[in-house]
Design a protein that fits this description.
Strand content: 15-25%
CATH class of the largest domain: Alpha Beta
Shape: elongated
Strand order of the largest sheet: 11-12-14-15-16-17-18-19
CATH topology of the largest domain: TIM Barrel
Largest sheet: 8 strands, mixed, barrel
């Protein structure tokens, strides 16, 4: 009871009746129960009191002179200041129609006279409870609104910060991370804008220049990220200082750069500018006390009105630049220096090689690739040898031969697969009959290295499908390895080949793929299963913390992209230990075994040497 009175004390009730005795009785009863009351004897006084004081409940008689209870209730409900106050009618009228009318004008309840004390208190408490619930609901609603407003403000701040971050990220995404020039995405936007201006702005024209730069000393060396970045930065700096009048200057891929210069209508003027830039890009770079010569080749396209090839202007300019590079790269003079042939050898190598292929004078050597955690021979690297010369054919020699006679590309490829399959059949039989061959994987994988000329064979994957259909080797035990430089320069074709190989069930590996080009895996969706990393990197870990960070980054990115990593050229126990500590999956090199003939692989299977 005390608690109930304490609650009731907070409730203020207006009593309205023209009979003072009724008012006194009601007031005494409610006051005894703990409610606060105020009494008025007319409808007009009730309206004035309701506006002057905040009441929680009104008990209202119906039959009153001048203004009856119905009219009082109507006016209370019509006024925004009093409309929410609940009204309980008290009347001797006990007809159903009277009660219906009371509720229709806005009444909340109805008590018939003579009333019982318990009934009246119960009905009053019911309205008080409803009032408390409404107030609690209002409080919750207010709190919710405050929370929503607070969250809305927070979301606005976060949204603003997000927009700023997105703008910053967008600006960053349009820049090459190494040179800070525009990247290919940004360049394509500028190019589309320039093409649009040709059709909308009178007399607008432009020249598009592509520069394909390279260092001849690095063509067949292991990839060095620091050196490659240094070359790209040197080229970008030269361009930025020499070319100050371009619409955009961008790094497309690798060391391929592009420039758009407005106002160039004549081809002669464009060529004149391109040659000056080319001369400026022919430079020397010193890296780790070693001198590197950088050369540049250019291609040019004109953006003029009514040009029939405007939409392919970039493709045409890149093709011209690459053709110029190819002419320089495959010149007999450069190949003579690179592979140390004399003049007579240069003219006879193609004929001799073709004859050797027909006479079955070419053989294959195999170098084991070891699972570094289990010590088992997991794969075999395949090398082409010339029996008459007794040495492995270098990639530069084979590239020269295949370049001079493209028809040989497919013949050599087919011969390598068929020969490897013949050897594979012999090994499989030995493995099956040899109980002590747990050191070699029963389904050993064969790794075929393809050169650019072979990768450019029309319908290459369709040819591989036909060749492998007749082999004993399962397609999922075949790895096609492509050079990093090919993936850099032929991103779209590499993407196409990787998807076709996956559909065929053949794995793809890229030799010495850098962290920078691992990023291309997302951009071009390369489906690469494995990459190779040169062991020369781990020998430099003690010299540079950055080298160790680079290796860990390569391994980490490879794992994120579901790729395995093979360490190449392992020569020492220390290199092996370093790769194992770094968590590299596979390794190969002379520490385990040099490239050996098929018969030596048979001996490895039978004798079970512990290569690790």
């Amino acid at each position: 009871m005390n608690t109930e009175k304490k609650i009731a004390n907070r409730i203020n009730i207006l009593l309205v009746d023209d009979n003072p005795d009724n008012l006194r009785l009601l007031s005494n009863m409610l006051t005894e129960y703990g409610y606060q009351t105020r009494r008025v004897i007319s409808g007009q006084m009730a309206l004035q009191a309701a506006k002057a004081t905040k009441f929680d409940l009104i008990l209202l008689d119906i039959n009153m002179p001048q203004m009856d209870g119905y009219e009082v209730c109507r006016q209370l409900k019509a006024d925004s200041q009093t409309t929410s106050i609940p009204v309980i009618f008290i009347s001797a009228l006990n007809e159903v129609l009277d009660k219906v009318k009371a509720f229709s004008v806005g009444g909340s309840d109805y008590i018939s006279k003579p009333f019982q004390f318990e009934e009246m208190i119960a009905r009053v408490e019911n309205q008080v409870q409803i009032l408390n619930l409404q107030q609690e609901l209002l409080k919750l609603h207010t709190n919710l609104e405050e929370k929503i407003n607070k969250k809305t403000k927070q979301l606005k701040i976060v949204n603003q910060e997000l927009k700023q971050a997105q703008q910053k990220l967008l600006r960053k995404s349009l820049k090459d991370p190494v040179t800070n020039l525009d990247n290919k995405i940004s360049f394509m936007g500028h190019l589309r804008q320039a093409i649009k201006l040709i059709n909308t702005k009178p007399n607008y024209c432009f020249a598009l220049l592509v520069f394909d730069c390279y260092c001849p000393q690095l063509i067949h060396q292991a990839f060095d990220l620091q050196l490659e970045d240094s070359i790209a930065i040197a080229i970008a700096d030269k361009l930025a200082h020499f070319v100050t009048f371009s619409r955009t200057m961008a790094r497309l891929e690798g060391n391929e750069f592009a420039i758009i210069i407005d106002g160039i209508q004549a081809l002669e003027r464009g060529v004149e500018i391109a040659k000056k830039i080319q001369e400026n890009l022919t430079l020397s770079l010193y890296f780790n006390d070693q001198k590197f010569e950088i050369q540049a080749n250019y291609g040019i396209g004109l953006g003029i009105k009514d040009s029939p090839r405007l939409e392919s202007i970039l493709k045409d300019a890149r093709t011209l630049a690459r053709q110029a590079k190819k002419r320089n790269y495959y010149s007999p003079q450069k190949l003579q220096q690179e592979i140390d042939f004399n003049e007579s050898d240069i003219f006879s190598i193609v004929t001799e090689f073709e004859r050797a292929l027909k006479r079955q004078e070419l053989t294959l050597l195999y170098q084991p690739i070891i699972s570094l955690d289990r010590g088992k021979i997991k794969e075999l690297d395949i090398f082409l040898t010339w029996s008459d010369r007794g040495e492995v054919i270098s990639s530069s020699e084979l590239a020269y031969v295949l370049h001079q006679k493209a028809a040989l590309s497919f013949s050599v490829l087919k011969w390598m697969f068929q020969t490897a399959d013949d050897d594979f059949k012999k090994w499989q039989e030995i493995i099956l009959w040899n109980e002590n061959s747990s050191h070699i994987d029963e389904n050993i994988t064969m790794r075929f290295k393809l050169l650019e000329q072979q990768l450019l064979i029309p319908n290459l994957v369709q040819h591989l499908e036909q060749i492998t259909a007749k082999l004993e080797i399962e397609r999922n035990n075949i790895i096609i390895e492509i050079p990093e430089i090919f993936a850099q320069k032929n991103s779209v074709l590499t993407q196409k080949i990787s998807h076709q190989l996956k559909n065929l069930g053949i794995c793809l590996s890229i030799d010495n793929l850098s962290t920078r080009y691992l990023a291309l895996n997302n951009q071009y969706d390369f489906l690469v299963n494995n990459l190779k990393v040169a062991s020369s990197l781990v020998t430099k870990i003690d010299e540079s913390a950055r080298i160790e960070a680079i290796i860990k980054e390569i391994l980490g990115l490879a794992r994120e992209l579901n790729m395995t990593v093979t360490a190449t050229d392992i020569e020492t126990a220390q290199q092996l230990k370093s790769w194992q500590q770094l968590g590299c999956e596979f390794g190969t090199g002379n520490f385990f075994s040099k490239p050996v003939a098929s018969q030596e692989i048979e001996n490895l299977i039978i004798k079970n040497p512990w290569l690790m």
